[in-house]
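user: At home tonight, take the chain set out below, taking as long as you need, and be ready to discuss the fold:
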Amino acid sequence: MPFIRSARLLSVLLIASVAINIWQFFRVESADEGTARKPVAASLARNPSTTGPVSGKKSAIETNKEQDAGSSAKSAVATPSPEQQSEDELIYGASGAGGKTPHHGEPSGKISPQRLKELATMPVSQAERFRIQARLLLPGDRALDFDALDFAAGQRIKLERIQEFPYPSSVALARVQGTASPFAREKESSSPGQAAFSITPTTPADFVFKSRGLEIELDLTPAPGALVIGGSLRQTVFEGFGRMPGEAFSPIWQDKVIFTDNTFLQPQFTTRESPFVAAAAEGEPIRIPVLTSFGQTFLELTCTPVE
């Protein structure tokens, strides 16, 4: 009888344990599904981005944050790591095959055939000159404003924020004068008059100047109901130095003593360019997606006829 009671008790405990495990499994799975749905809904609520004229419902910074979040998410999903890219993709960039090429920015809305017909009948601006105001949206709720500029339709203009960076284009190789080092002269006391080394390391001879910073080129063509703005944003940034190889650029040493590191450095630059064509309304800002050293951002342009 005690044996039967023990067997029954073990059976009850085993059944209870299995039931508890099953209950916990379904409870955790339901919780995971609930938490997984919340970020998706929040993400959809945060990203109704627009690259067209800025509406009065949201501030420029709020719209920029939403657009940056959407663009970053697309880039992370669409762009493979360097290890996964082919040789051509590493050298030339994304090929666009298989939908791998990321794109940034969204249309400002939808337009009906009737609205297109209305735009086609609108008069073309007869203004002789226009004023362009440009600013680049920066991280940290900042914006870089360029000076406003007046120009004529069809005229190619340039807005700049650049600095000149000098670097050598030719060198004078290291030179050594004399026949012995000071250490060798000390060892050879029998030759007190023997000359010591005089070393001049490799030095730059001529310099060229590289413009680094931002350059915006654009022109404007009036069209029915719009101003067509075409151009490009180009950014060149200094990334660091590369140490040049070769015996002429190697450290100079003797008797375990380095006389000079004989270092010769050359700069490394990165240039990013974003061509664009945009149809803007007179006096209303329009945001154009551009690539910069700090990632995807927006160039905001406002074009107004000058009376």
Observations:
- The longest helix spans residues 2-46.
